[in-house]
């Protein structure tokens, strides 16, 4: 049996103590589910974020995942942070998909770009399909033009 992994490692600089407190709250509550602490502001909500380590220091918040992590949840959470503090910055991160055994469908990754106005992300397989469609369209146009 193969083990599949989603891995990433990156950080975001923090400018204020309020930003640090915001991420410290996410760090405290992001993985609790049925066993949320009584003061959890997210009781009965979908927490996601399982498998992501969030480390908050004075100057930055650092995200790592070695075995798995929901990159979509992370992008949405980063966008909420940027919105909460009305920050005009773009945060980018990449992730890798690996496997403990050689499996054709198990290796890849992707990229996200996140601002307070939106998120844009794509995985390696989706990007490969997009590129293949573009090349097929070029080939079809070439055949139609007789070149």
What is the H/E string?
EHEEHEEEH
Largest sheet: 6 strands, antiparallel
The portion of residues assigned to helices is 25-40%
State the distance separating the first and last CA atoms.
Answer: 48 Å
Strand content: 25-35%
How would you portray this structure in words?
There is one protein chain. The protein has 147 residues and is of the alpha+beta class. It has one domain. 33% of the residues lie in helices and 29% in strands. It has helices at residues 17-29, 71-84, 124-145; strands spanning 4-13, 53-56, 60-65, 91-99, 108-115, 118-123. Strands 2-3-1-4-5-6 form a 6-stranded antiparallel beta sheet. It starts with a strand and ends with a helix. The model has no long low-confidence stretch (mean pLDDT 86).
Main attributes of the structure:
alpha+beta; 3 helices; 6 strands; 6-stranded antiparallel beta sheet; single chain; flat; 147 residues
